[in-house]
Write a structure and sequence with these properties.
This protein has 22 helices and 4 strands. With 475 residues, the protein is mainly alpha-helical.
């Protein structure tokens, strides 16, 4: 198993090398320039559209429902475990690159939403299917269908074996075990290995609840997400803000360390470039893992929105990156820094959720158990909704690959639930690495399409705002 894990790490480093980082950041810069920094000029309007449904829009779910489905998939372990991993592995400077990538990623996410609605396909009975596979095939032409199928294949793998199932339920199981049975006093032997009873119960419970929701399709996933996502995001943000206020005297020092780390200023002369590249790699990779800008997953949900205007849904879509990374991930990172959890991780070898748990446990004058409980609840909600969102994404990928074979999709639903059930018993490090690999591979076809179709994105944007300013359409 160690040899396999080492192989995955090598592949991961290859996929997430300098070329992909340049492609991600370069695409964000290109779209930001072509759209005239639209992600900041129109951010207020985007939030307005987020809560105001379009009159007589066409689609399966409301714009807000589509956004919550996308946020359900993005606000997950990446916000808690991913940020901690990035900071420990890449240093505090990884936070800077994570936020910068998100600022550019908002333009990318906007563009994905525009293309998703413009090139979506009406499947009949009020069902709409869209995403990178359709804007590659219908936007770039039939000769590029192989690229569309490549994206769908990687998306299917990411959902079933990567970001959608095993990593998320692993995060839930780790958090529940850390709170209820940290010393593994109650264990059960499964296939020759001892596992905490808490882990086994968690696996079964999450799998059963997942099955009850995903069998109902996008409308049930959307209805659950519109309730859970706002609730969990508010609880988490309030907790983080409380920790930051209590440790407000440490914020200036944390910010200085973040900027120094971002540019390798604390490294010795010969290692400055290496430190900068490591911080950049970790920040961008974990940022994409968290907000999925450029990944191509969110436009699959955007395509189901009740709207007639691609630009309108694009604006709503880009708020997801702002909420996910610029707000939630930034707060997680700052919380880790101001509480001294980053330094504790270096001294005591803490990893992943342990780093954030340490910040929550000792960041406020509450008992250690309260902090652990709060994090467990937040992580459980975050990860569960990600499981739901990625089920929808990967189902649509399979539907595209199978030519609309809904029997295959139904079989896949149960395989997905099975992956959730066995997730806590898989090797965590190998699974996280596999998830990273699938993410990177998904991004490549999607980013190629965004660059190729940037002219259409700009034209759609100009047309919409010209019609809006002329009073031909209502907001």
């Amino acid at each position: 198993m160690e040899n396999f894990t080492e192989f995955l790490i090598k592949v991961d480093n290859l996929v997430w090398g300098v070329p992909l980082i340049v492609l991600i950041m370069g695409t964000g810069i290109l779209l930001t320039a072509r759209l005239g920094v639209l992600q900041f000029r129109k951010l207020g309007k985007a939030f307005k559209y987020m809560v105001r449904n379009e009159e007589d829009g066409i689609g399966e779910v409301s714009s807000f429902g589509a956004l919550c489905t996308a946020l359900a998939a993005t606000i997950g372990t990446g916000n808690i475990v991913g940020v901690a991993t990035a900071v420990v592995a890449g240093g505090p400077g990884a936070l800077f690159w994570m936020v910068l990538a998100a600022c550019l990623g908002m333009a990318t996410k906007y563009s994905e939403g525009v293309l998703a609605v413009k090139f979506r396909v009406d499947r009949g009975n009020g069902r709409f299917l869209g995403g990178p596979f359709y804007y590659i095939e219908n936007g770039m032409g039939k000769n590029w269908k192989w690229l569309a199928r490549l994206f769908a294949t990687f998306g299917l793998g990411a959902g079933l074996l990567g970001i959608g199932t095993i990593t998320q339920v692993n995060g839930i199981a780790s958090a529940t075990e850390g709170f209820f049975d940290p010393n593994k006093e109650n264990v059960i032997n499964i296939f020759g290995n001892d596992y905490s009873v808490t882990t086994v119960i968690t696996a079964v419970a999450v799998a059963v609840i997942t099955a009850l929701v995903v069998i109902g399709g996008i409308k049930r996933i959307s209805s659950v997400s519109t309730v859970i996502v706002p609730f969990m995001a508010i609880i988490y943000v309030v907790t983080c803000v409380s920790i930051l206020i209590y440790n407000i005297d440490q914020i200036p020092n944390a910010i200085v360390r973040i900027f120094e780390g971002a540019f390798g200023l604390r490294a010795v002369a010969g290692g400055a470039l290496g430190a900068l590249l490591l911080a950049m790699q970790q920040g961008v990779a974990r940022g994409i893992f968290s907000n999925e800008s450029g990944l191509g997953s969110a436009p699959i949900a955007a395509a189901a929105a009740k709207t007639k205007e691609p630009v309108r849904q694009g604006l709503v879509s880009m708020t997801g990156t702002f909420i996910d990374t610029i707000i939630i991930c930034s707060m997680t990172g700052l919380t880790i820094m101001v509480t001294g959890s980053y330094d504790a991780a270096l001294e005591n070898g803490l990893e992943g959720v342990e780093v954030t748990a340490n910040a929550f446990s000792f960041g406020l004058p509450w008992g250690e158990g309260i902090g652990s409980f709060m994090l467990m609840v937040c992580l459980a909600f975050f990860a569960f909704t990600t499981i739901l969102g990625w089920d929808y994404y990967s189902e649509r990928c399979l539907e595209y690959l199978s030519g609309g074979n809904m029997r295959a999709v139904m079989i896949y639903k149960w395989l997905y639930v099975l992956a959730v059930l066995i997730g806590p018993f898989m090797t965590v490090s190998a699974v996280w690495t596999l998830a990273d690999i699938f993410n990177g591979l998904m991004a490549i076809p999607n980013l190629i399409a965004l660059v190729a179709l940037n002219g259409i994105i700009v034209a759609e944007t100009k047309s919409y705002f010209d019609r809006l300013n002329a009073g031909h359409i209502k907001e």
